[in-house]
Description:
This protein is α/β, with parallel strands linked by helices.
Amino acid sequence: MTLTSFGPANLIKRSAETHPLTWRLRDDGEPVWLDEYQAKDGYAAARKAFADMATDDIVQTVKDAGLKGRGGAGFPTGVKWGLMPKDESMNIRYLLCNADEMEPNTWKDRMLMEQLPHLLIEGMLISARALKTYRGYIFLRGEYTTAAVHLRRAVEEAKAAGLLGKNILGSGFDFELFVHTGAGRYICGEETALINSLEGRRANPRSKPPFPAAVGVWGKPTCVNNVETLCNVPAIIGNGVDWYKSIAREGSEDMGTKLMGFSGKVKNPGLWELPFGVTARELFEDYAGGMRDGFKLKCWQPGGAGTGFLLPEHLDAQMYAGGIAKVGTRMGTGLAMAVDDSVNMVSLLRNMEQFFSRESCGFCTPCRDGLPWSVKLLMAIEHGEGQPGDIETLLGLVGFLGPGKTFCAHAPGAVEPLGSAIKYFRPEFEAGIAQAKPGIPPLARPIVIGA
């Protein structure tokens, strides 16, 4: 995926009014450092928040704007902020940025951190003011080495300008910000596993309640937000609730814009900031350019490897949480993957389940034992050695590992694509047990995403 690809010039013209996340991007893809960022109204929203708004007003504004988490779960941000304790005596509290972006086929936050590091810092600064947090951490995926360098430089620039540290903007408010690189575990995307890892513990999810807002990092009140979520905060504070709600397309229940994309064998794989409510067909055809010559769209995932597969006839669904739910899955991160007609679904699912099995923390039995079991069955089917009843066993695992059956959401996300693949492409799974049927792609060498 080309991180600086924002669509054909005749389709998209970025401006502060329509593209609050990306309008400051440079055409050459280089980072926007402090002087340029401030020349483009950077930190103006932070100055407004510090000078003109009470902390509760900031929280209420974000809540009224309808901002939801952009990491995949879609929980209302203002509601989450409202869970932080009001007790002023609890003066040690933390703000964590979840930048552990390890969902396969989903790399959107990387662009923001590498090219607009000050946008994330401003978003965290305003959020810290609202939540009365005195210290923040950006928990960064360890492989994002360029992002780490750029974020650390931006933090130092902000410190030197009096935008981080002690007595920020003469307000008496102190906020320190640190970049922490993780050791590379997918499960750290779950907020309590992230907290455990930050504390130096094994990255296992914690039992909830208590929720991090009450007992988080080092036992103190903690708020965890995604990179893209925090990057929306400056525009909401700067431009207001009505403006933010007006950006989304008619019919969308989600407000504002979203980084969306398409990967796979499409003509123009890329990443675009688009209003909630655009159709998947518009994203696929107008921005991604449709399939490359010689390939046909077989199915697609709307937002990462943990979302269910959809068919070409589902492309008219609107890209927002409720719109994708209407066709049977979740929007997830909003970065879609196109699967072409040369791919056999058994091989694709075997590869996906291997990833999810390897990344399980192993805490609960359904996930620890169920995911490897699915991999073994899929490998047998992939090599034509499946036994009668294997497909039914796989469907049973989809049920046993579904929502509410495991300690966290890792296993439900892992089996969602498996269940949908069997639903839509069952003959390909049956071909690994019985004799292959005409017209079904052969079970060729194993597929490795990204190879």
